[in-house]
Specification:
Shape: globular
Helix content: 40-55%
Number of helices: 4
Oligomer: single chain
Strand order of the largest sheet: 2-1-3
Protein name: DUF3718 domain-containing protein
Distance between the termini: 53 Å
Organism: Parasedimentitalea huanghaiensis
Structural class: alpha+beta
Keywords: Signal
């Protein structure tokens, strides 16, 4: 009987660990460029997919390329607690895309 009660608890614990990766607000800061003439920008973007650096690269690239920007790198992935400290540095590219 102990084994039957343990399995649902184990499944619930595993689901709880997996859910926050997409359920919580997630943001990333990144650097991008345009050529001819060379322009660079630092930006902050809200992610709608997985809150992981690898997934953020694909999502950000897809969103900024339509405006002629090329992603250089994703600096970090963070929650809402990191927004205010990055706002001034991002300027007009704060949550733009």
């Amino acid at each position: 009987m102990k084994h039957l009660a343990l399995k649902p608890a184990l499944i619930a614990a595993l689901l709880a660990l997996a859910a926050p990766a997409q359920a919580a607000e997630c943001y990333a800061d990144y650097k991008a460029k345009q050529d001819s003439p060379l322009r660079l920008h630092y930006g902050v973007i809200q992610l709608s997919g997985a809150c992981k650096k690898g997934a953020a690269k694909a999502e950000i690239s897809g969103r900024i390329e339509s405006q002629g920007w090329t992603l250089l790198n994703v600096l970090s992935v963070f929650g809402p607690e990191g927004l205010q400290q990055r706002r001034a540095d991002a300027g007009s590219y704060y949550l733009r895309f």
